[in-house]
From TrEMBL:
Name of the featured protein: Maleylpyruvate isomerase family mycothiol-dependent enzyme
Cited InterPro entries: DinB/YfiT-like, Maleyloyr_isom, MDMPI_metal-binding, SCP2_sterol-bd_dom_sf
Residues in Mycothiol-dependent maleylpyruvate isomerase metal-binding domain copies: 16-149
Tagged with keyword Isomerase: yes
Keywords, comma-separated and alphabetical: Isomerase
Record Gene3D superfamilies: 3.30.1050.20, dinb family like domain (1.20.120.450)
Molecular functions (GO terms): isomerase activity
Keyword set includes Isomerase: yes
Pfam families registered for this protein in UniProt: MDMPI_N (PF11716)
Length: 236
């Protein structure tokens, strides 16, 4: 694992600042513009990120008190909260985005060493130590800062985060159906192998494009013969 707990704390803070700064001052017109995610406006996306902060605060509370507090009451409720948030006025949505991030940061800052080692359960049903919470938040804020479709790109994210993201996605994709791919980051020398169907396809390019490709975002990666990198199934 090429990430430390301190790394994830730093990336969570960096991504949060990047996302908040990008959306700062937006009115209805900017919030109603399409995001980089199909079918979602920026309002949907911001509601999702704000709801995620509240959900991760539930895990912080679980770690702090020992009282089982799931991220979401149900997948249906999670989706309903995002849809409801997408209908909030711009100012109210912006306030939720900011206040939820502040509550999560305060909760994280209040955990002691023993509480960080407490076991909690993610929305995907994985039992993990609370030390995973900053990494879960890092993925949300960093990737979705790009998804706001307001000029932020993967090249604006910390290189260490992108490497860790690629590691994480490759580990998750290892058990999923899809094409076999060998990936190489030409600017860092890192390599990843995705097991899958057929002969492995070699794909290389800058780390930012590799991370974007693995995350299912727009990229410029091609195979040695110039054809597009093979499509991958969803990773989350």
């Amino acid at each position: 694992m090429r990430r430390t707990f301190d790394d994830t704390l730093s990336w969570s803070e960096t991504g949060t600042e990047l996302l908040l700064d990008t959306a700062a001052g937006w009115g209805e017109e900017q919030y109603l513009a399409p995001s980089g995610l199909p079918g979602w406006t920026r309002k949907h996306l911001v509601a999702h990120v704000a709801a995620n902060a509240d959900a991760l605060s539930n895990l912080v509370r679980w770690a702090a008190t020992g009282e089982k507090t799931p991220m979401y009451s149900s997948p249906q409720q999670r989706n309903a909260d995002i849809e409801a948030g997408s209908r909030k006025p711009a100012a109210e949505l912006a306030a939720w985005l900011s206040s939820s991030a502040e509550r999560l940061a305060a909760g994280v800052a209040g955990l002691n060493d023993d509480q960080w080692n407490a076991r909690v359960v993610t929305a995907q049903g994985r039992t993990v130590p609370a030390t995973e919470i900053p990494w879960l938040r890092s993925r949300e804020v960093c990737v979705h800062a790009v998804d706001l479709a307001s000029g932020i790109a993967f090249t604006d994210l910390p290189a260490g985060f992108m490497t860790a993201l690629a590691d994480d996605i490759v580990a998750k994709r290892g058990s999923a159906a899809g094409p076999a791919v060998v990936l190489a980051a030409t600017d860092t020398g890192d390599h990843w192998e995705l097991p899958g169907e057929g002969e492995p396809v070699t794909v290389d390019g800058p780390l930012a494009d590799v991370a974007a490709y693995l995350a299912g975002r727009p990229h410029a990666l091609t195979t040695p013969d110039g054809s597009s990198a093979p499509a991958l199934p969803a990773w989350l």
